[in-house]
Amino acid sequence: MPVTIDDIRAAAKRIAGAVEPTPFVHSRTLSKLTGAEIFLKFENLQFTASFKERGALNKLLSLSEAERKRGVIAMSAGNHAQAVAYHAARLGIPAVIVMPKGSPNTKVRNTRVHGAEVVLEGDSLADAARHAFERAQRDNLVFVHPYEDPLVIAGQGTCGLEMLEAMPDLEALVVPVGGGGFIAGVAIAAKGLNEKIKIYGAQSRTYPSMQQRLTGLPVRVGGDTIAEGIAVKDVGEISFSIVKRLVEEILVVEEETIERGVVALIEIEKTVAEGAGAAALAALLEYPQRFAGKRVGLPISGGNIDSRLLASVLMRGLVRDARLVRLRVTMPDVSGSLAKVAALIAEAGGNIVEVQHQRIFGTSSVRSPEVEFLIETRDLEHTEALVQALKASGVKVATWF
Fold it and tell me: What does the H/E/C string look like for the chain?
């Protein structure tokens, strides 16, 4: 095997003091929600808010003085970019980072903040990789691959080492999978300390490249995903060989479930996770029967998410849980009608967020305009009770959604 637990232990010593040994804590509420005993590894609390610092720093520290002077180049959708940029600057190593054009603004901005030269190239990570390889050869730069490198894999494995040293009797780990470096390193560390532990991967429905490779299917991926950090068109060969040997199964999760994971981590744990960072929790939300009653470790692999996207995810979560609903009400066009309905909504405990009064489009009669209310409620049961209260008072609720 190209990476051993001794390599991971050596990486842990090498990066000690420069990378956070992040908290690994039990979540009572998520355990109740999923039916498993959940322990969360807060890798979103690293300085650049992801586990990627572990592998990037281990690689950078292995470079000779001559290689450091030449400088490094990396391709990344964001988290590896920030990790390489930050630690390269800290070590005085010039860095060039190639990112796909559609990379989240927060990741591009935070990479530039660390002083790296950022190049936006191509529409995918594969396009960025081609450009990065060409530039590495042209300018004689050291390529720091995000997952297809034994030193990077060993560095990522230190996260698994910390989890198993803290909780030796864990029964399962669920790890987000993009190119495969993270789960490969974690699997080597975990199996090295507890050979009975089961390792599962989590991938988004739009980019299930590792799952397709393992099941012998042609790799067909693509499309929009909130989990851009694991939106990789194909996996690394080193990682694939390790995953094939040590990982139990790759679980494919829906976009909506990943969004639910992001919302749950904010509302329950008060911690920010990007889509990829919530993918492991999403796997438990979507496949609870696999983990019922088991002690399961989940890394929150990253927390770099655009504020606007996060706001949209949170609002969609309110809608999904029927805590933010729209009521379309038909009412007589007489003085006081709107005030009456608003008062009834308030009496039923609803909070009116927005009102749209429609007199022209979609009304059955010019004397019966429609009013659309955007209302905040406690939950689905409260919403249904509110609608029934309106109907009981003679209010014509045409639809609610």
Answer: CCCCHHHHHHHHHHHECCECCCCEEEEHHHHHHHCCEEEEECHHHCCCCECHHHHHHHHHHCCCHHHHHHCEEEECCCHHHHHHHHHHHHHCCCEEEEECCCCCHHHHHHHHHCCCEEEECCCCHHHHHHHHHHHHHHHCCEECCCCCCHHHHHHHHHHHHHHHHHCCCCCEEEEECCCCHHHHHHHHHHHHHCCCCEEEEEEECCCCHHHHHHCCCCCCCCCCCCCHHHCCCCCCHHHHHHHHHHCCEEEEECHHHHHHHHHHHHHHHCCCCCCHHHHHHHHHHHCHHHCCCCEEEEECCECCCCHHHHHHHHHHHHHHCCCEEEEEEECCCCCCHHHHHHHHHHHCCCEEEEEEEECCCCCCECCECEEEEEEECCCHHHHHHHHHHHHHCCCEEEEEC
